[in-house]
Amino acid sequence: MADTSMLVRHPLETRRTLLAELSAELDGVALELEAPLAAVDLRLDPAGPGPAAVAEVAGGPLPPQPDTWTGLAAGQALRLGPDEWLLTSAAARPEDWEFGLDEAAAPFGGAAVDVSAQRTTVRVRGASARPLLASGCAIDLRPASFPRGRCAQTLLGQAGVLLVALADDDLQLFVRPSFAGYVVDWLVDAAQEFRRPS
Amino acid sequence: MQLIACPWCGPREEIEFSYGGQAAVAYPADPASLSDEQWARFVFFRDNPKGPFAERWVHSAGCRRWFGAVRDTRTYEFLSVGPLSATTARTSVLPEATP
After folding, report:
1. Quick one: A100 and A123 in the same domain?
2. Looking at residue A147, which CATH number applies to its domain?
3. Which residues of B touch A138 (CB under 8 A)?
4. Which one of A3, A84, A178, B11 has the minimum C-beta count within 10 Å?
């Protein structure tokens, strides 16, 4: 029987203290690693009754607009494409999360696949979080055009990321684990100009 | 950098997109009956107009969706974007059959 006692660790666990130390020296920026989430990629016809049925299982409505997210009971529903959503949960086990959503989506021709290991999350907080990200990201990150509730798949530096606006001074970054080292290196480098004057 | 208006995500930088070649190239009705030359013409030969050109693009760094676009090859200006099914009538690149 498989050993289920192993804990899922953040791929950048070894840099957690380094990021905390750096954040203490920065003015208006804090970089943090987030706890691993259960994540499911949902493909479903957006026009039919499917999204409403899945929403009941997910614990919150699926976002109807492109590039937006809505809150679920213990996670988020992020719209990735016309017929694609990313549903995360901080509470459920990945296999349960996938199973429940897939059962709800299947009658409507949809499918839910566990992609918990596909992305890892980094949190960028603080008043200077947006200027920091804007130095490597082409989309308009000013709060007026990227307010809370928006998300966007785009490039940060050279890496593809999913940017999520949680608040004006709080952004979440989904990135593939193999690119996470590069993205955090990039963030640490870009954050140097926000160092507190000593 | 040039912005391309993805039908789903809105205007994004060109670097996020990949080019998919000429749009609406009709698949041969009876592939088995084609000569090698006709098959090569279907696989490799594409229009190269000077002016508006119907093309396929994919937003590979964003929503990963394919869409059709009409681009002016002289100015690189995107004249329109839309779903692939809407890009002009399907055109055949096959030569007219010779009796």
Report:
1. no
2. 3.30.1360.120
3. 1, 12-13, 15-16
4. A3
Question: In tens digits, what is the pLDDT along chain A, a chain of 198 residues?
Answer: 566 556 778 888 899 999 999 999 999 999 999 988 999 999 999 998 999 999 999 999 999 999 999 999 899 999 999 999 999 999 989 999 999 999 999 999 999 999 999 999 999 999 999 999 999 999 999 999 999 999 999 999 999 999 999 999 999 999 999 999 999 999 999 999 999 887
Would residue B76 be called left, alpha or beta, if left means φ above 0 and alpha means ψ between -120 and 50 degrees?
A: left
| Count of the separate structural domains present in chain A | 2
Instruction: Please give the Cα distance from A52 to A60 (Å, whole number).
Output: 9
Across the interface, whether the CB atoms of B15 and A155 are under 8 A apart is answered yes
Q: Exposure of B85 by Cβ count < 10 A (0-12 exposed, 13-18 middle, 19+ buried)? A: exposed
For A193, other C-beta atoms within 10 Å of its C-beta total: 13
Q: Is the pTM of this model over 0.90?
A: no
Beta carbons of B16 and A80 less than 8 Å apart: no
Q: Is A18 within the bounds of a domain?
A: yes
User: Which positions in chain A touch B10 (Cβ < 8 Å)?
Assistant: 66-67
Q: Which domain holds residue A46?
A: 38-114
- Residue A153 CA to chain centroid, in angstroms? 10
**A150, A129: one domain:** yes
